[in-house]
Amino acid sequence: MCCCQVGAWAQETPPNVVIIFIDDMGYADIGPFGDTGYPTPNLDRMAAEGRKFTDFCVSSAVCSASRSALMTGCYHKRIGISGALGPKSTIGLNANETTIAEVCRSKGYRTAVYGKWHLGHHPKFLPTNHGFDEYYGIPYSNDMWPLHPQTVAKRRINPDAPSNWAELPMIQDTKIVIDRMAPADQEQMTKQFTERAVEFIRRDSDQPFFLYLPHPMVHVPLFVSDEFRGKSGRGLFGDVVMEVDWSVGQILDAIEDIGAERNTLVVFTSDNGPWLSYGTHAGKATPLREGKGTMFEGGYREPTLMWWKGKIPAGTTCDTFASTIDLLPTIAALADADLPDHKIDGHDIRPLMFGDRDAKTPHESFACFYKGELEAVRNERFKLVFPHKYRTLNGHPGGTAGLPIAYQQKMAERALYDLDNDIGETTDVSEEFPGVVAELEAAAARYRNELGDKLTKTKGTEIRPAGKLEPGDEQLPLVW
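^ that's the sequence the OP posted. Answer follows.
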């Protein structure tokens, strides 16, 4: 494995940064992480020319919580964001939090986001009020519309059944430009967001840029453009992944076309694991346990690639633990920008990115929260799971044709897993490692004291509030 020394980190100019954030992609959904069912040549290229991270995790296995942590470098629990915000939500990212875009803008960067935001849909919560110069995208998940699968299922029985969802809008900056997204509009999203991202990269400017490209795919309902429909030979899911792979290629090509490949960091990862109940329209997390909606490894460990020619060692793999909460402090260090004044939970992972031979995880422990419950705590090697209810298909393959099947509810037992030797979390080794159990129990007590825990009915002392829609605030005029 190629190794770099600390001296190689020096930057004469601030680097450009691109984060490509996929929705609901499973650990094994792309070639570099084991999929062989359809080609992903551009992601294969990114791995061959960059670095694969096999133990890279998000803060929580659900949309808004995960995205809030990425943007702020904080556990989502610290900043009051949990679950997946919808069109009836009156909260969003607090203006007092500092985003990656605001860190970059403090150093003169151009900033843009194209895709799914999902951190509040009212104007005060949208990206242009959180450090981004421009935004074009949808405010929350693409299934939050009148054609939601539950509504579709109801209307097969009763064509006049009402929907519980507003129309899905497309937003530019803080204004709606399409008030009723149709299936034909969703088919063009991956292509349109990519085209806007490429145009942003190619603009003639002496400024460095931060580009955030959070694709709505591969979240259900799946949509793909005509150019990729039927191309994979492995159904609609394969077609959608191939179009996402094409998008990655367009981004890398645009960076090389402007001669910026040696001054641009590109990160590819996902917000959480696969939505397994959708079966043929969902990915897979093999060999990890479970998927989205659980804090077993399949729910929050993501397929992650980083690319930066001449800086990140080509064709290498990092098996050391790191997280999306580490991206903000790492980007701040690369840009020589100040960190936020308030507490964050991420760390600078340049040693891991650049392959320093002495690099170690900066996390002595990591909290695994889901919907307010501290379901596990882990370190580099071990993970202590606490008793909690979780959803599972219990071996069932899931639904077909874009409709889910129901999950079963099971009880997770208290267990210690050796992730280095049991990545699938199958065997409790707590009796063999009582000292590790004690260390992780102590870490859990600290997390509960700071961030609270519904499982133990503990109130946290260091939780900051989410932003709230106040009387007089402008509201996005959704069509119901």
